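for the writeup, i need someone to sanity check this before i put it in the appendix. the sequnce is what the collaborator sent (i think, or maybe the updated version? ugh). structure was predicted straight from it, no edits. if anything looks off just tell me and ill rerun, i have time this weekend
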Amino acid sequence: MYNKNLTHYIVVTGVLIKDGKYLIVKRADWEKAFPSKWTLPGGKLEISDYVLRKKDTTDHWYNVLEDVLKREMLEEVGLDVENFGYVASMVYIRPDGIPCVIVNLSVSIKEGTSNGISLCKALTDFAWVDIEEAKNYDLIEGIYGELELLDKQLKQRTN
């Protein structure tokens, strides 16, 4: 069931790549959506993510999703990121009936910044995994598919 009177949440998630492995994180057991499941860092787009800053054209703001992911990666795992690339998008309806559009981007740790993970309170664990190791985690449905898509993209670039 969905609530047709609500607009969508827009969520941006990031696949962080380091030394051929991907960062996955475990959600706290008290989270409304997907408690205790493994996922990718990310978060919701908020109106304040753009209306409080100067427009890039007369009417528009550029790179809003990238800026949301920068903020969320810093808040959730303590890492500054760069080198954004499109991986995939999907839509699902949350248990509370709110439709959610998810845009998944690949990123890397910003050169010259810390590599140390510092988890926020909403996350309880993290792991660096390759595509085969990811199969051993209780991932939110669709996350493994996103990792597979990116893994294929990266292999095609190197061939």
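The chain has a mean pLDDT of 91. DSSP finds three helices and seven strands in the chain.
thx in advance!!
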